[in-house]
Write a structure and sequence with these properties.
It is built from 14 helices and 15 strands. With 396 residues, it is α/β, with parallel strands linked by helices. Among the domains are: 54 residues, no CATH class; 93 residues, no CATH class. A hairpin with a 2-residue loop joins strand 4 and strand 5. The protein starts with a strand and ends with a helix.
Amino acid sequence: MLRLTVKNFGILKNIDVELRKTNLFIGDNGSGKSTLAKLIIIVTDFTLDETEILQRLKDFNIDFFNKDCVIEVKEDDLLILSIVGLKINFSKTRKNFLQTLQKHETTIAVNNLMNAAKDEDILDELINKVSMDNKDLADIIIKLKNNKKLRNSLTNIDRSINHSKSKYIPAERNLISLFNQSLSNIINAKIPLPKILLEFSSEYNSARNEIKELDILNMKYKNENSNDRIYYESNNSLALENSSSGIQSALPLYLTLKYFATKHKNIIIEEPELNLYPESQIDTIKYIIENRQESSLTIMTHSPYILSILNVLLFAHKAANTNPILKEKISNLIQEEQQIDPNEFCAYLIEHGVSKNIKGKSTGMIQENAIDDIGGLIDNEFNDLIDIYSEFKSDK
């Protein structure tokens, strides 16, 4: 379990949160959720050194360091990262990991290139070309070419490094369908683009090249000759950019989540409900929980529906583990892979840069009053209207 505390970092005034396998953050626009999401991505990515942390903060436009800023990350009560004022400090374990990463970085990159090349003729051509400019690099290629055991070992190290990285699925994902179609024009026009969107676009393309077909919200996605198409009833299809706004938001989420889950330990999703009807929100949350595999998952949302859906999945796990007969019956209604263990779940309300725990201590579920307070805003207005209308009727 990780514990993150943040004080005086931009809009984040006082954050104290646990990060378990499934984490929920809900709050109003401008409450600090997006800043917190981006900060979680950075501080839980154990492959970043001091310089890279500072660069990522700039890339995400959240470089809010000041002399009063305090950020701490603890793992099982052991401090692994602290940022006090303008100084970044790592634990000894994390320093050792970074040293190992830096030591193998070049060799791993060459190994991955060779694995991608596969063809021996291409490798020989690569050795000849590199030898002219960099004999040391050529020696690495020759060594790897002749040592299959070393190459397999480096591949495993690379997987371990990837597993230590965190990945972000932003709310801006709904732009991907149009963005990818005109990327070359945008680049040629020198239009400044957020780095986070450029990165996600690249990761989305990697995902769609690996996952050619996918079921999504009672439809089917297919990558046909590098064109994204959505198949509806009677085998009719539309290009992704001509599909509904909900599908344009959902497909990048569905694809990249499935892709990230096999490679990375932390996945942060902003607004999974984006442009989706409530029934589709239910299906999407179930898909996310079912397909995240062993990855830790953090969800940032505005939607009270998401809270209600998560409570159903939490209660399903709680009830299913009462006895074997009940477990079988509940699993027929809600698959075991979609259920959430309350012991591996955290939920927080973010208001004006301050975190408030909204998980019930005894139930392990999201407190009912937290859901009622959000949904109650509409009820309050409706009741006020009824009072005004009733008063008018009585005057008549």
